[in-house]
Amino acid sequence: MGVVMRLVPHLPNFAPITAIALFGGLYLDKKYALVLPLVIMFISDFFLGFHDTLVFVYVSFLISGLLGLWARKQKTAGRILLVTLLASTIFFLITNFGVWVAGHIYTKDAQGLLSAFIMAIPFFRNTIIGDLLYTTTFVLLFEFLTYRIYRRQPLLARRK
Length: 160
Fold this sequence. Notes:
It is a single chain. The protein contains seven helices and no strands. By secondary structure, it is mostly helical. α2 runs antiparallel to α3. The longest helix has 30 residues. It starts with a helix and ends in a 10-residue tail after the last helix.
């Protein structure tokens, strides 16, 4: 699904990869949690094309997975909201820094860096909305299905 969602037309930065990374950290084994979003990115980038900021994008998703692993220790709605907003912000900061470092659009000085961040603000809105929507959907759907199928603990309760 992550690969397909990147390949079909969508709003800029409105894709489920951060949510998949967070979800992986929340629910999957650590090795899968950190690798899954990177594999999805690599496969979809194979079709979309590789670019100069690839390392920055991949690192931001790796950090999102780590945030999910941190949140799994005490899985509450507030903590999941916090890590989702943190992941969106980290993605914004790291990838736009990468655009400034590796790209040729902005001058390599403080004004160029500031311009890179300012010009990216409209994309940040899409990032936040998409991350909140996808993460909420994935977590609630998984929690609901887990609860309904296995009659386990209440939604978002701490799991070991």
